[in-house]
Amino acid sequence: MRFDELDLEEAVLDGLDAMNFLETTPVQELTIPVILEGKDIIACAQTGTGKTAAYVLPVINELSKGLHPANAINAIIMAPTRELAQQIDQQIEGFTYFVPVSAVAVYGGTDGIAWEQQKRGMEMGADIVIATPGRLLSHIKLGTVDLSQVSFFVLDEADRMLDMGFYDDIMQVYKLLPATCQTIMFSATMPPKIRTLAQTILKNPEEVKIAISRPPETIMQTAYVCYDMQKLRILEDLFSKSRPQRVIIFSSSKMKVKELASTLKRMKFNVAAMHSDLEQSQREEVMKEFKNGRIDILVATDVVSRGIDINDIKLVINFDIPHDPEDYVHRIGRTGRAGKQGTAITFVSPSEFRGLNNLMRDIKVEIKRETLPSPQDIVEMKRLKIKEEMQEIVENESYDGYKEFAEELLAEYTPDIALGALLRLAFRSELDQNNYPEIRSFSVDRKGTARLFLAVGKRDGYTARKLVDMLKFKCGLRDKYINDVQISDNFSFVSVPFRDAEEVVRKLNRLNRGRRPMAEIARDGENGAQEAPVRKPRRTKTEDYQAAGQAYAPAPKKPARNVKPATPVPATPAAYDPAPAHDETVHAEPSHDQTAYDPTSSPRRKLKTKTQPHPDIPDFSKMSNEGFDWSAFMKFDEGTAWGRDENGKGKGKATKSVRKTPKKAVTAAQRVAAKGKKRK
Fold it and tell me: Residue 305 contacts by C-beta under 8 Å, 6 or more apart in sequence?
């Protein structure tokens, strides 16, 4: 169905024509007439099916008639995230180009200036307010929002808002709306909580459910499971097999589009970028050049996934896997048109592997996983490309300016050396297989796990439990992520999450530093079986020198150091000299009349002598107590001596004064009674 077949105003249709929106999507075809009739509706549709235009267009159409208050908020659109609120605001800006309808986006994460702008826009009476629940409630509490004149209340991605805990916020806003307000709800899924919410806020709603479309069978769909750093290498390998013609590369963001286009230009490819930062005239010029064949590769965002009609597009590449199945269908739908064959390739990173499985489940299509090119394949393709370019130069005889220089080189070097040196100078390390270590095939199953090869086994003392413990404590993996452990005598296999495979390999090889690699990602064998990596045999020093064009000569041995000669051993040993006979008298018991032991005469130890006092210090121990006045040492506290008792005897350290009167005897009952008085 076309938009002009719907009951829309002419000004709204003019805006759609300017945006190249001609035909409706299934969700737009089914929901727009219902909303125009003024009925409540709940629609289940995936993101990317055109649901934003499905509820925005009828709201703009009704507001354009001039039957609603001019200086009041007439429509509230609630979105779960500020990114989605911004996207909706941008689409409304395009749809209302020829319509006198205003809109303002209200979301958090901004500074004070943005807050004031949002506040002023709502106070002046913007027709449409696109808001996140939290920020809208903040303005309501401050009294800057009047919802008494709202005629349309839209909930976009209602299931996601409930998952984020916005149910109470939604109900608070809903209670402030007038009873005559039309409520529109869109959700990607229809769980029980969504149906409960619909029964609460919707009045006799119409229910619309849209199934996801499927891509044409004429498109051959494949996927490369790889890391981000491998994607450019794969592109280079794909384009080296044949010249790219009419190729579209989709990326998720305009920043990636700009970077990828610049990189491909440096690789001498004829490429152009298409994104939202370009002016309308620039977009038209790029599309014109691409249709005419003057541009081979078009790198674009989803801005060209719809609304372009270019025949004979041979290849579509998803540099990033799209988030929504409908976006994937629209992207690859640029090829394989009119019954012709087409090819669609999708690059899937470890974090996106689960999304690939969900995508195949939603569109009910099996996407074949391709094997990554090996370093040998890449180098071989580069060699073939060099030969083809040289053949073209020879056939066109476009080498006249270089013949004289070639003769000079051949006069100094042999042809093989001269040509080899020129290839090395021109292509650097592009023809060296060791320059492509990251290009390899990974063994990944449908669960998103990778198969690892470990160079340890039973002979190294490992069991399944010990291997799991090592991965658990050394690599930080949890037990539930370690599966399918197989232990042989000399090696082992284990399955880990694909996103963690590279990090696990790095940590294990770091533990085995200085020796052979302990872990590697297993490569795919025949029939999908896992095989141990093929290791290159280590070259000897002789082979290393031969590869460098030199003769190997081992280093001379170091001369022996001058060692002092040992003491000569006599030819005849000395005669045997037995020990003296045991003398029993030595250990005889001492007699009773033996002289007593004198310790001072013993040489075995020295006795400690008392330290002599200093001659200037008097010896108080020899002083007499007679006639000594102890009153000088008495404290004035009841006549008690300081450091002495009443008899004048020393008590060591200074003590507290002692009362002369004895303490009274206190019974247990008296102590209990005293404690009770203290508590009171």
Answer: 250, 327, 330, 331, 334
Handedness of CA 109, 112, 117, 119 (dihedral sign): positive
What is the rounded distance in angstroms from the CA atom of residue 367 to the CA atom of residue 345?
9
Kind of pairing, strands 530-531 and 523-524?
A: antiparallel
d(CA 468, CA 463): 9
Q: CB of 64 within 8 A of CB of 106?
A: no
The contacts of residue 74 (CB under 8 Å, 6+ apart) are: 63, 68, 127, 128, 149, 150, 151, 152
Contacts of 373 (CB under 8 A, 6+ apart): 233, 234, 237, 381, 439
Spatial strand order of the sheet with 368-369 comes to: 271-274, 297-300, 247-250, 315-318, 342-348, 219-225, 368-369
Q: State how far the Cα of 643 lies from the Cα of 374, in Å rounded to an integer.
A: 98
Q: 2: which strand partners?
A: 23
Q: How confident is the model at residue 620, as a pLDDT?
A: 53
Residue 640 confidence (pLDDT) = 45
What is d(CA 198, CA 205) in angstroms, rounded to the nearest whole number?
A: 8
CA angle 487, 493, 498 (to 5 degrees): 155
For tokens 């014109």, name the residue.
288
The radius of gyration of the chain's CA atoms, rounded to the nearest angstrom, is 46
Per-residue three-class SS string for 328-383: HHHHHCCCCCCCCCEEEEEEECHHHHHHHHHHHHHHCCCCEECCCCCHHHHHHHHH
Indicate the length of the chain as a whole number.
680
Minimal CA–CA distance to 315: which of 239, 211, 224, 423? 239
Give the chain's domains with CATH numbers: 3-209 (3.40.50.300), 219-373 (3.40.50.300), 376-432 (no CATH), 449-531 (3.30.70.330)
What is the rounded CA–CA span in Å between residue 357 and residue 366?
9
Rounded CA separation 140/174 (Å)? 12
CA proximity to 102, closest of 79, 74, 81, 83: 74
Q: Which stretches of the chain drop beneath a pLDDT of 70? A: 46-49, 109-111, 211-213, 280, 303-311, 326, 337-339, 351, 371-375, 377-378, 428-430, 432-448, 513-516, 523-666, 675-680
Secondary element (H or E) of residue 78 = strand 75-78
DSSP for 212-280, please give it: PP---TTEEEEEEE--GGGHHHHHHHHHHHS---SEEEE-SSHHHHHHHHHHHHHTT--EEEE-TTS-H
Residues paired with 155 in a beta bridge? 78, 185
Q: Is the pTM of this model over 0.70?
A: no
Residues 531 and 523: beta-carbon distance below 8 Å: yes
DSSP conformational letter for 188: S
The pLDDT, as a whole number, for residue 185 is: 92
